[in-house]
Design goal:
By secondary structure, the protein is an alpha+beta fold.
């Protein structure tokens, strides 16, 4: 957490494409294979589905401390979504990329834990952060809990993640190191992230068990995203 800034049924086994994505980091082009999304649902189709907003939050969130409160949480029958920046959450189990050495705001805990009782690894697990329940919005009342499945859209890329941490009650727009890296966003907790252009779509009443099973999150997310874009 930082101030800066269905229950699973057996899902069809299809999928996992490599999660590396094209980007330029520090002026150097990556050479990994280009992968635009983790499944068959295109970013453009998801963005078209969330073009209009029916607010479910009572107020609006800030993207960071000191910015205007301008971001509502919107909702449909099957999902909630918001459009914001992306700050980098490096909290949880420490590693070479996420630790007190690399992140001055590092916490060795996340709001939710793995099946073995350990905290999540921001370096390894794509997860997003939801604001703590407040008078603005209480995610729990909208079918969002730890392990809920999310589609994260940036540019023409779609990545699937889980709700893995809870942040300040007045700020929205944060995801793990692994989520940012998969989207080609600079994942450095010191000044990484992106100031805008990220859409977070969380499917209501879903939960990956165990929360650390990213393949299950992708399978479920792909299935639900396909249904979501077909909704009338």
């Amino acid at each position: 957490m930082r101030v800066q800034s269905l229950t699973l049924a057996a899902a069809s086994a299809a999928l996992l494409a490599p999660t590396t994505s094209p980007a330029m980091e520090h002026g150097t082009a990556r050479t990994e294979p280009v992968v635009r999304r983790e499944g068959r649902v295109a970013a453009a189709d998801l963005l078209a589905r969330v073009r209009t907003c029916e607010p479910v939050s009572r107020g609006r969130y800030r993207s960071d401390d000191g910015t205007a409160a301008s971001i509502p949480v919107c909702g449909t029958r099957d999902a909630v979504f918001w459009k914001a920046d992306m700050d980098i959450d490096c909290d949880g189990r420490p590693g070479p990329r996420c630790s007190r050495r690399t992140d001055p705001l590092f916490s060795d805990a996340t709001a939710f834990q793995q099946s073995d009782g350990r905290y999540l690894s921001a370096e390894r697990l794509p997860y997003i952060v939801v604001p703590a329940p407040s008078r603005i919005w209480d995610h729990r009342r909208h079918g969002v809990r730890g392990g809920a499945v999310a589609a994260v859209v940036y540019g023409d890329q779609v990545r699937y993640a889980v709700v893995g941490d809870v942040g300040p009650g007045h700020i929205i727009g944060e995801a793990s190191y692994a989520t940012a890296k998969a989207l080609g966003i600079r994942p450095d907790p010191r000044g990484g992230g992106t100031p805008s252009g990220v859409t977070y779509i969380v499917f209501r009443n879903t939960q990956v068990k165990p929360i650390e099973d990213h393949a299950a999150a992708v399978a479920t997310g792909e299935r639900l995203a396909a249904l979501f874009v077909q909704e009338k």
